[in-house]
Amino acid sequence: MANLTGYKRDNTSLYISKDPDSNIQYGLDFTEYLNTGDSITSASTTISTVSGDSAPLAFPTNEATDVYVTGGVLVNIRLEGGTAGNIYTIKTTIVTSQGDTDARSFRVKVEEKLL
What we know:
single chain, about 120 residues, Immunoglobulin-like, five-stranded mixed β-sheet, globular
């Protein structure tokens, strides 16, 4: 995927490091996965849960407001919260104008971020 600013890779997959106090938007660029002339018409995103989590990672408002498509290729996802030390999986499923359905996941590692 292109446009992976801020993402890191470990031996499992891509992840992003997020401070529990941040309310931030992440982008997933599907350009390389779309057929020529195809575009994303809708996107949905789920956030995994962690048992006993007192401050789970969440959408600041709701999924309908905090997950949206830009330019037919980029899915924007706004997230807030999360408990330091927890790792959440974010799964985004798209539907395209040509009728294809595709899904991609990344992880969010919540940790206190220092300068």
